[in-house]
Amino acid sequence: MALPPSLRTSITPLELELVASEQLVEIVPLVSMERTAFISGAYGPLRPPTKCKVPLWMASNLKLKKKCHMVPPAWLNVDFLQERLLRETTDPGFSEMPFRFAEVAKILLDVAPDDLQNPDRIRMLLKDIREARQAKSREGLSKLDHNELMLPNLCAMEINEIRPFFVRGMNVLTHLTREPVPVDAMDQM
């Protein structure tokens, strides 16, 4: 959902990708490397062809240098995504997805499409899921209630997108539902 500059008070999608790049993913290294310490932790040793878990940023870097193959998460496949799309289009609630699925999928599709089975179909399914979830978000915001708002299973990107609208809407609702101060109470102040 593209936002006008006046509503861009939240984190940008690129910043969300940066945060998501701290997630651990599995790789199959193509080179040996001793255990290496970084600010975020120590990773390795890398010994081909043994799988190991490293942060997404490190896996992306190694992949771009052709020093590993990335193992996609279990949810990043056509069958799982088709089932989620069916749920999104038939059930009124949001289906459960990994919290940072949009960001992780984008990074993997950009950096390692050759490590995914049918990346074009995956990309299309993710787009359809995202559009279905955005439609539910818009519908939920149109029914904004001052007393309670429940949108379980929203993901980081979706929360970030609706935050400006939600904050403004709640401010207006709070202002409209405030008890008016009686005139005699104003005199006593």
From TrEMBL:
<feature type="domain" description="DNA replication complex GINS protein PSF2 N-terminal">
    <location>
        <begin position="12"/>
        <end position="71"/>
    </location>
</feature>
<dbReference type="Pfam" id="PF25005">
    <property type="entry name" value="PSF2_N"/>
</dbReference>
<dbReference type="InterPro" id="IPR007257">
    <property type="entry name" value="GINS_Psf2"/>
</dbReference>
<dbReference type="GO" id="GO:0006260">
    <property type="term" value="P:DNA replication"/>
</dbReference>
<keyword id="KW-0235">DNA replication</keyword>
<comment type="similarity">
    <text>Belongs to the GINS2/PSF2 family.</text>
</comment>
<dbReference type="GO" id="GO:0000727">
    <property type="term" value="P:double-strand break repair via break-induced replication"/>
</dbReference>
<dbReference type="Pfam" id="PF05916">
    <property type="entry name" value="Sld5"/>
</dbReference>
<comment type="subunit">
    <text>Component of the GINS complex.</text>
</comment>
<feature type="domain" description="GINS subunit">
    <location>
        <begin position="75"/>
        <end position="171"/>
    </location>
</feature>
<dbReference type="InterPro" id="IPR056784">
    <property type="entry name" value="PSF2_N"/>
</dbReference>
<keyword id="KW-0159">Chromosome partition</keyword>
<dbReference type="GO" id="GO:0007059">
    <property type="term" value="P:chromosome segregation"/>
</dbReference>
<dbReference type="InterPro" id="IPR036224">
    <property type="entry name" value="GINS_bundle-like_dom_sf"/>
</dbReference>
<keyword id="KW-0539">Nucleus</keyword>
<dbReference type="InterPro" id="IPR021151">
    <property type="entry name" value="GINS_A"/>
</dbReference>
<protein>
    <recommendedName>
        <fullName>DNA replication complex GINS protein PSF2</fullName>
    </recommendedName>
</protein>
<dbReference type="GO" id="GO:0000811">
    <property type="term" value="C:GINS complex"/>
</dbReference>
